[in-house]
Design brief:
The complex is a heterodimer of chains A (420) and B (256). Chain A is mainly alpha-helical and 420 residues long. Chain A folds into two domains: 129 residues, no CATH class; 220 residues, MetI-like fold, CATH 1.10.3720. Helices cover 64% and strands 5% of the residues of chain A. Chain A is built from 17 helices and three strands. The longest helix of chain A is centred in the first third of the chain and has 41 residues. The radius of gyration of chain A is 30 Å and the shape is elongated. In chain A, 39% of the residues are buried. Chain B has a domain of 172 residues: P-loop containing nucleotide triphosphate hydrolases (Rossmann fold), CATH 3.40.50.300. Helices cover 36% and strands 26% of the residues of chain B. In chain B, the strands form two sheets. Chain B has a six-stranded mixed beta sheet with strand order 6-7-8-3-9-10, with helices on both faces. In chain B, strands 2-1-4-5 form a four-stranded antiparallel beta sheet, with helices on one face. In chain B, a hairpin with a 2-residue loop joins strand 4 and strand 5. In chain B, helix 3 runs parallel beside helix 6. Classes of the chains: A mainly alpha (420), B alpha/beta (256). At the A-B interface, helix 13 and helix 14 of A face helix 2, helix 3 and helix 6 of B.
């Protein structure tokens, strides 16, 4: 082979490599785009909900309470009759069946919504006001265009009569889209229009905080001891290998461990963020120790020697010099470990967080859901309304993860830049 | 012949092992007070290992074992019960590569006094910082930017900062491990000038690869080869008329 040929071959090898590299980056980006597009196109509509403008007359005869009643009295009172009376006036119904069909257009919580409006302003007796009552899941999906109306009536959840009412309401501009506060405020529900991630958000928040409080100090102290103080011998080698192995153990194994020890033996309350947090802490511990040790290792030995040479003790050289320098790496490793824990599903399913929980947890020992488990639960539900909710929950989860990862990068860059 | 100063550090039958490998063989070396002793020899001959025994810096290395005696002012320091912190307060060290802490210039100097409880008040600390920097001939260059990072200084300034840091705890001995090997000739000249000044107050041991530097700064020179102290004597004598053939060969550049 001549020199020119070799040169040509070398150049073309380099060109080929560049092409492969670009192609794989392009492919990866394409997949990300498809994923993001899929989630956004399905999920973005979940942040709006459909409501129907209803005129409500607070008829003294139908209500047992008077103006100026206390909140407790109002909460006790029966608003069912006025609710029905108001709802069936939306469209002229001829018989009871038609009235039922009419009522089905609204959420099952219509009575509660009317009561809430009354609670806010309790001198409404004898007055007429317009309220935006949340529509049922079927109307919501129909209005968002997710529900086909051209299939035979017996295969539809919405009857022909209901479609007529719907069209009439649209024509009279009675159907409104507004911000779906239920999605953020409410717990889970069997009715998609009422279901929200409020409970899951709080559950995930508590779990992650408990995970952080348990895993971070233990991981940091373990790393500092192993890296700076422990003698280098067979025992510490063995511990190091096992920490690396633990980081690779499938998360479901931690779930089984928690099931056996935390739930069966210690009898902690199941389905709670407390147990979830402990389980996630076990799982996250090695995943924090590894980056933490790496960042301690990255501190140049000359800094330790410098401190020792002016007469700092081992402890002082570590805690005055090495640890502060390793902190940015440690923090970003911790945040990335927590981000992984936030998205973890399998161990939480095993400890019972997959239970159907309607209430918003007020303490970490209340039964609760969590974001990834909520995704899993809703993705299995049959109702059409849960499809968009699943994707919207994934959007929330992804945005938390992105924020956490950005925070990790930001912290690392900000504190590492300072002295360079 | 002029009189030598009093002996400050005395090593007797000093042996050092790194695991299986022996790095120093029966080194007997006396270092005089308020004098500069240069240690020369080819790479890996044990000069650095020797000075790291004087402030017990070898303790940091797990596999390093030291046997034999080192006395400072007649007190044995190679003793398990000796507190290395107070030893290192008396024996400062400057390293091959400048290693200021990634903190401000002020904090670099004040760190040592703070941990040893010298300079209780801010004004006392200010004074220590100023004096240390002045002694290290750095004060004029940095007095207006004491709160800037020490790592932002030039290489020569960083090394003088490290010298100031060593001085700040008011030691009796300063060990210098090739302090100029990472510096340019101008910065080197400044450090050498400084060493000349410092020997009035401190006992200095300097490891160097530069024969010229040894001649310029030291009064006494020791030549190491393969872990053994081959020859030691007044610098003038070592370089003009060494007793040992190997010393002769090394200083004339025939090996090394």
């Amino acid at each position: 082979m001549t020199k020119e040929e070799r040169l040509k071959k070398r150049h073309s090898a380099e060109k080929r490599f560049r092409f492969y590299g670009l192609a794989s980056i392009f492919l990866a980006l394409l997949f990300v785009l498809i994923l993001v597009h899929n989630i956004f196109s399905k999920g973005s509509s979940a942040f709006m909900k459909t409501a129907i403008n209803v005129e409500v007359f607070f008829d003294q005869e139908l209500l047992e309470i008077k103006n100026g009643a206390s909140d407790d009295e109002i909460l006790e009172a029966d608003f069912f009759d006025i609710t029905i009376e108001s709802l069936i006036k939306v469209y002229p119904a001829k018989n009871v069946e038609e009235e039922d069909a009419l009522i089905e257009l609204f959420t099952t919580d219509a009575e509660i919504e009317i009561k809430r409006a009354f609670l806010e302003n309790n001198n409404l007796i004898g007055k007429k006001i317009n309220l935006e009552i949340t529509a049922s899941d079927d109307i919501d999906q129909l209005h968002k265009g997710n529900y086909p109306r051209d299939i035979p009536e017996d295969r539809r959840r919405i009857s022909d009569f209901q479609l007529v009412i719907y069209d009439n309401l649209v024509e009279n501009q009675k159907i409104i889209k507004n911000f779906n506060n239920y999605f953020f405020k409410n717990g889970d529900s069997r009715d998609p229009e009422l279901a929200g991630i409020g409970g899951a958000l709080i559950g995930s928040f508590y779990s992650i905080i408990i995970c952080l409080l348990l895993a971070f100090p233990v991981a940091v102290l373990a790393s500092i001891y192993l890296e700076e103080f422990a003698p280098k011998n067979k025992i510490t080698d063995f511990i190091e290998i096992n920490i690396n192995n633990l980081a690779a153990v499938p998360s479901i194994v931690y779930g089984l461990l928690a099931l056996q020890i935390l739930l069966a033996t210690i009898q902690l309350p199941r389905s709670t963020p407390l147990v979830a947090g402990i389980t996630l802490a076990l799982m996250t511990l090695p995943r924090i120790i590894i980056p933490c040790r790496a960042s301690l290792k990255a501190v140049p030995p000359s800094i330790r020697e410098g401190a020792l040479a002016v007469g700092a003790s081992k402890f002082q050289s570590v805690f005055h010099h090495v640890v502060p320098l390793a902190l940015p790496g440690t923090l970003s490793g911790t945040i990335i470990g927590l981000a992984q824990a936030l998205g973890e599903t399998a161990p939480l399913i095993l400890i019972g967080m997959v239970a159907f929980v309607v209430d918003i947890p007020s303490t970490p020992i209340d039964p609760s859901s969590s974001l990834p488990v909520q995704v899993y639960l809703w993705s299995e539900s049959a109702e059409r309304g849960f499809v968009e909710k699943t994707s919207a929950t994934i959007m929330m989860l992804l945005s938390f993860l992105i924020v956490m990862n950005f925070l990790a990068v930001y912290l690392r860059q900000k504190f590492e830049k300072r002295w360079n | 012949m002029e009189l030598m100063n009093e002996i400050k550090i005395k090593s007797k039958n000093l042996n050092v092992y790194y695991g299986e490998k022996q790095a120093l063989f029966d080194v007997n070396l006396d270092l005089n007070e308020k004098e500069v002793t240069a240690l020369i020899g080819p790479s890996g001959c044990g000069k650095s290992t020797f000075i790291r025994c004087i402030n017990r810096m070898n303790d940091v290395i797990d596999i390093c074992k030291v046997s034999g005696n080192i006395e400072i002012d007649g007190v044995e320091i190679n003793d398990k019960n000796l507190d290395v912190v107070s030893l290192r307060e008396r024996v400062g060290m400057v390293f091959q590569k400048p290693n200021p802490f990634p903190k401000s210039i002020y904090d670099n100097i004040s760190y040592g006094p703070k941990i040893h409880g010298k300079g209780e008040t801010k004004s006392e600390l200010d004074e220590i910082v100023e004096n240390s920097l002045k002694k290290a001939a750095l004060w004029e260059e940095v007095k207006d930017r004491l709160d800037e990072p020490g790592t932002g200084l030039s290489g020569g300034q960083q090394q003088r900062l490290c010298i100031a840091r060593a001085i700040s705890v008011n030691p009796e001995v300063i060990l210098m491990d090739e302090p100029c090997s990472a510096l340019d000739p101008i910065a080197t000249a400044k450090i050498e000038e400084l060493i000349d000044e410092l020997k009035k107050t401190y006992t200095i041991v300097i490891v160097t690869h530069s024969m010229a530097q040894a001649v310029r700064v030291s009064q006494k020179t020791g030549f190491f080869h393969l872990g053994k102290l081959i020859e030691v004597g007044k610098t003038e004598k070592i370089f003009k008329n060494p007793d040992n053939k190997m010393t002769q060969d090394y200083i004339t550049g025939r090996f090394g």
